Sequence to fold (125 residues):
Amino acid sequence: MRIRWHARALQHLCVCHAQVHVGGMVFSPGSVSVVSDSLLTLPAIVSIAAGGSLLLIIVIIVLIAYKRKSRENDLTLKRLQMQMDNLESRVALECKEAIVLHFDLRFLCPRDQRSPGNAHSEAQA
Fold:
């Protein structure tokens, strides 16, 4: 048994003519019409693909811009942290020098060597 299909396709309709060969006899059961279930036409599919591609490109551009801004903010934060560390080091050095100077002055001028009549030196101590 051989079956031959002769199809003629319209935009959404396919008309098929079948012939069945059995032995030496040929039967033609008739034509079969098949309607496509597809609701989207070619322009609609192309439009959807173009819109999706455009959306993807916009998302990629936004991600690149976010990454650049994030990197810039990280560099600014590192620079500010270095400035704060330098400032803290300078303040610590100045405090250390002030404490050393204070102790040096106390050792240079002990209490028992001050004159007892000098009220000004007592008020400062």
